[in-house]
Design goal:
By secondary structure, the protein is of the alpha/beta class. The protein contains 14 helices and 15 strands. Helices cover about 40% and strands about 20% of the residues. Helix 3 links the parallel strand 3 and strand 4. Helix 11 runs antiparallel to helix 14. About 35% of the residues are buried. It binds iron/sulfur cluster (SF4). The site of iron/sulfur cluster has 11 residues, from loops.
Length: about 375
């Protein structure tokens, strides 16, 4: 079954570390809704199978007025065959999840919230320039559960300078107590074009400490393991079976449509990249044109993407799949490339599966990049 990702490019405030595409002005919310609906219609021929997951990401989809979200759902149900058990997720921020908003969202086919909690400490949220406070971080989760939204995921961030180990343990404990079946936790990375990067460059902010980040990552793995969570992807943990369908399909190479400014799509062969600019996106859609470029992926591109995403999951890299889908030469090269990491005990081989060891999880991106295969002329 295919997926649909819809990017809602609006946020209330700009978080200091964020390099996603968004605008803090909601002036064009109505035009954007119309354009997104139009793009859904223009692209409907690209999906012939049933839709098994729909994901509203951003930006902050919960800042969009509910009637606009309802219009997008109306277009979806008119033009796509959506499975009755499809996972339908909306990213939300705690300050948006008022009782009124939750009851409005309850009227839509949404069945999963991904809540941008990040921390349960006011000073940390202030440091990040988040729009919510610690009280809202907690009450938004409880309020959603009381309204019958059981399938919740919360985001947490670690590895930032003012997060002491004690505070991090408190955040993990709090997340476990709140009984959300899914937690996504990200090590703070400094993206070049962000306020955070500029503050570090100007000496107003101390740089990120990689050792602290690695220790907090290990604490997280241990505590969530004890609480019964499966570490099913480097940044994702769930109670058994509560994996995020949309993300899991993405890591498995299932096709999905990308709708809205900056959204990416994948049809099993090519990648589609929408323009990351709201006025130019609107301008194209107003002319009934798509605002995308197509990136043709070579077999090697697809294999390297498979290596990068599969290695990060608890299902690992399947050597049989590499042999069957990409050929004997790439298979043999991969078998050769994994040797140093097997010796270092960063990965382990279980029959034809290559999995990260606990130590290897600290170096997932480095290992993946070393396993990438090169074109003959790149060697
Ligand atoms: S709410 Fe999310 S998308 Fe918006 S600025 Fe903050 S991190 Fe970025």
């Amino acid at each position: 079954m295919a997926g649909i990702y819809i990017h809602i490019p609006f946020c209330k405030k700009a978080c200091t570390y964020c390099d996603f595409h968004f605008s803090t002005s909601l002036k064009y919310a109505e035009e954007m809704t119309d354009a997104i609906c139009k793009e859904l219609i223009l692209k409907k021929g690209r999906i012939t199978e049933q839709v098994g997951s729909i994901y509203f990401g951003g930006g902050t989809p919960s800042v969009l007025d509910t009637p606009y979200l309802a219009r997008i759902f109306h277009t979806l149900t008119q033009h796509y065959s959506i499975a009755s058990d499809a996972e339908i997720t909306i990213e939300t921020n705690p300050d948006d999840l008022t009782a009124k908003k939750i009851s409005e969202l309850k009227q839509l086919p949404v069945n999963r919230f991904s809540i941008g909690t990040q921390s349960f400490f006011d000073e940390d949220l202030l440091w990040m320039n988040r729009a919510h406070n610690a009280n809202e971080a907690e009450t938004s989760i409880k309020r959603s559960q009381d309204a019958g939204f059981e399938n919740l995921s919360i985001d947490l961030i670690y590895g930032y300078p003012i997060l002491t180990d004690l505070k991090w343990e408190h955040n993990i404990r709090k997340a476990i107590e709140l009984q959300t079946p899914h937690i996504s936790a990200y090590s703070l990375t400094v993206e070049p074009k962000t306020v955070l990067a500029s503050n570090i460059r100007k000496g107003r902010q101390v740089p990120i400490n990689d050792d602290q980040s690695a220790e907090q990552f290990q604490t997280l793995i241990q505590k969530l393991d004890l609480a019964g969570f499966e570490h099913y992807e480097i940044s994702n943990y769930s109670l058994p079976g509560k994996y995020a369908v949309h993300n899991t399909n993405y890591w498995r190479g299932v096709p999905y449509l990308g709708i809205g400014p900056s959204a990416h799509g994948f049809d099993g062969t090519n990648r589609y990249l929408n323009i990351a600019n709201n006025p130019r996106y609107l301008e194209q859609l107003n002319k009934d044109r798509l605002a995308e470029t197509v990136e043709e992926l070579t077999q090697l591109d697809r294999l390297n993407e498979y290596i990068m995403t599969a290695l990060r999951t608890m299902w690992g890299i399947d050597l049989e799949k590499i042999k069957a889908s990409y050929g004997k030469t790439f298979y043999e090269e991969t078998v050769y490339n994994i040797k140093p990491f097997l010796e270092r005990n960063w990965i382990t081989q279980q029959e034809q599966k290559i999995l990260l060891t606990p130590e290897g999880k600290l170096f997932a991106d480095h290992i993946a990049s070393e396993l990438f295969l090169l074109d003959e002329h790149e060697k």
